[in-house]
Amino acid sequence: MSGPSTGLSMAVGAALVASAALVLGLTVIGGVDQDTTSASIVTVAQLPAETCSITGPVRNLTVAEAANADAIVTAAMAASNESSRAARIALMTAMTESGLQDVDSGDQDSLGLFQERPSHGWGTPAQIMDPSYATDEFVGRLLSVPHWQQIAPWLAAEHVRHSAYPDGSNYKPSWVPAGTILSEVLANGDAPGACGQGTGGLAAKGTGHGLPPGYGAPAGTPPKHAEVVAFVLAQLGKPYVWGAAGPDAYDCSGLTMAAWATVGVTLAHASSVQQTEGVAVTAAQLVPGDLVLVPGSDSPGPGLAGHVGIYLGDGLVVSAIDTEYGVAVQTWDTFVSGGLIALRDPAPGE
Prior knowledge:
Layout (H helix, E strand, L loop, with lengths): L5 H19 L38 H17 L4 H15 L26 H4 L2 H13 L9 H9 L13 H12 L36 H12 L17 H10 L9 H4 L4 E2 L10 E4 L12 E7 L2 E5 L6 E5 H4 L6 E4 L5
Antiparallel strand pairs: 1-6, 2-3, 2-6, 3-4, 4-5
Helix pairs in contact: 2-3, 2-5, 2-7, 3-6, 3-7, 8-9
């Protein structure tokens, strides 16, 4: 069986080590490869919200309010794999709860921008008063809300905050102004990939939904894996629909589940479960057809995959990306730019 190139093996190793460091709260410095012609395998690993900072004035906000809005968007975009919807929901909530003021008091023991409570497990008072930490906590819980991207944003916020308004009507008036503020903040210097978030884009433009011309499964691909690759490439261009598993539309885990079902391998319809199915493989063992699991834009929690694709070899990954791209091909670097959770072989030993 042929594996990916040495360069890809090093990149995968870097992502796995950095990912582990993030989960454990470690800081890893330096590299293990002394070859100065290649990048160091591991550089400084930080929490996503610490890897960049968007700063600048925002119209109709005081300097302090603008700084808090910038901090919220910076942290939210990083923690959500650059979901502008998550950032806007976070802004809407903070505007309602505190007026974008990092207040040190509130109802009972509520503190900070989101009026989070130490007694309810949101963190220590000092942590909650840190805008980046408070936003990370809020967004982390938001991403665990089922279908948070499909339901009304004020309901999504209510599922996180559990306020006195079960319908989220207290948050709703802030939704439109939150959009205006988000646009202002993003204009202050956000750029795709700048805050540790993933980036979009296809491997090849104008050809076969990102599939480069002349692609073929690499020689030595095991038979079942080759069938999986052939199946998934036949789905290119089909739309992304949350919860769908074919034949006319797919979500990410629905596509991988359907692909492997064609060769008699059963996978769960959930990326966070697929990361435990089959066997773990290293970068050197990775072959076309294997699963590549990443946080995605809707991660269910730290260390859990929110998106999954199928490795094609040649530095390519195919997946049901989102409603914009549907089933399409991305480069390895693009696919794992927001982090790497796991590599799995659903049919080991063939």
